[in-house]
Amino acid sequence: MEINIDERHAYNYTEGLTKEQRREALELMTRQFKELLERPDSDNLYWMGTKTDLVDLVHEVYMTERMVDRQGRPFGFARILERACAVLHVVMPCNPYSMAFNARNRKGVRQTTMFSRFCWMVYSRKASHPLKEMVKRMGE
Length: 140
What we know:
mainly alpha, 46% helix, single chain, 5 helices, 140 residues
């Protein structure tokens, strides 16, 4: 067995999953994220991950087009991110689109996408609500 120690890219956990498992994980992630955004700002929820991870999560959910307004139109990326930043007490990034692009590519960083890590938590760690682990409620 040959081991490449000089591997520069982090392992993408989703590559080992079936299409059905990826679809189920994306639905779970979207559902849990929507639940978070429905919480009032006064719940004092704080995002414990990086801002890049939050932007990556928002972009992934945005791409599903499952968050819609009253007319059935999908919310825009910036609108979802604005709400997420308000609920999770994160400063809105100056250029969220650039940040989303960089988060998706993760160049020079030994980190996988937020979705890959979410899948790992669901399927390897058997976490029922991985996003709750990334959010902390202050003042309790």
